[in-house]
Design brief:
The protein is built from 11 helices and 8 strands. It has 280 residues and is α/β, with parallel strands linked by helices. The protein has an 8-stranded parallel β-barrel, surrounded by 6 helices. Helix 4 runs parallel beside helix 5, helix 5 packs across helix 6 and helix 6 runs parallel beside helix 8. The model has no long low-confidence stretch (mean pLDDT 96). Bound molecules: 3-methyl-2-oxobutanoic acid.
């Protein structure tokens, strides 16, 4: 039995067992209907702190709060039955100490019903990840480009080129040794992602990394063409819902102005027609 109560729901050990196997399909979701769509096709649904940028219009993930993660985690939970639900720990909720991280991770799990949390950082988070893992909190790590450190990096730059490769390799290893069940590798060179994937015993989940990773993750609004403020090279658009929505709203506006909407099929008579059923 899993956290959701669904008999065949995906568990943390199921994800770990996929190391070197069929690639793990992971996608973000922040609302009930999108989580329900994602979970039909994905092993992992992540309520990423990218929610701040894609749904709330924030300039980075730094302004995301515990309250936002809890609200969106609860919404996603209502849509997810079988996939593993992971919720991001927002900036400032875990870096201070292992006990701060435990308090906030436990709150995320208790209030959203997620099965695991994700936090950013490698070597510097070793002690924190070990502290959480030893207390029953499954942790997904995140190394390479860690967006919460965008100011320290001076932008959303590729990490781990040249001599920096060694540091990212050490970060991934530290996360695995500390007891994380999987690790996201973001925006690192293909060759580095391949060697990390070969060297560490837990699944690597790539985003702008390598097809050799044990799984892939992307932001759902990116792949659907709903978030268009910028488009990293690693994003593949599988739909253009943003432009479809734009066209649909334009037609709605035109029809309202021309009094073509609503028409008689959308309005109510004084009394329902006898025998006829009126929809809500
Ligand atoms: O916040 C997020 O959505 C993420 C993933 C895309 C890895 O961290």
């Amino acid at each position: 039995m899993s956290a959701t109560g669904a008999a065949d729901a995906t568990t943390v050990p199921d994800i770990m067992a996929r190391k070197g196997g069929t690639p793990l399909v992971c996608l973000t979701a922040y609302t009930t209907p999108v989580a329900a769509l994602a979970e039909k096709h994905c092993d992992v649904v992540l309520v990423g702190d990218s929610v701040g940028m894609v749904l709330h219009g924030l300039p980075s993930t730094l302004g995301v709060t515990m309250e936002m993660m809890i609200l969106h985690g609860q919404a996603a939970r209502r849509g997810v039955e079988n996939a593993l639900l992971v919720v991001d720990m927002p900036f400032g909720s875990y870096e201070e100490s292992p006990s701060q991280a435990f308090r906030n991770a436990a709150r995320l799990m208790a209030e959203t019903g997620c099965a695991a949390v994700k936090l950013e950082g490698g070597e510097s988070m070793r002690e924190t990840i070990a502290f959480l893992a030893a207390r029953g909190i499954p942790v997904m790590g995140h190394v390479g480009l860690t967006p919460q450190a965008v100011n320290a990096f001076g932008g959303y730059k590729v990490q781990g080129r040249g001599e920096a490769a060694e540091r990212i390799g050490r970060d991934a290893l530290a996360v695995a040794e500390a007891g994380a069940f999987a690790v996201v590798l973001e925006k690192v060179p293909d060759s580095l992602a391949r060697s990390i994937t070969a060297e560490i015993p837990i699944p690597t989940i790539g985003i702008g990394a390598s097809p050799a990773c044990d799984g892939q993750i992307l932001v759902v609004d990116d792949i659907l063409g709903m978030f268009t403020a910028f488009r990293p090279k690693f994003v593949k658009r599988y739909a253009e819902l943003g432009s479809e929505a734009d066209a649909a709203i334009a037609v709605y506006a035109e029809e309202v102005r021309a009094r073509r909407f609503p028409d008689e099929s959308h309005v109510f008579a004084d009394a329902p027609k006898s025998g006829g059923k009126e929809t809500a």
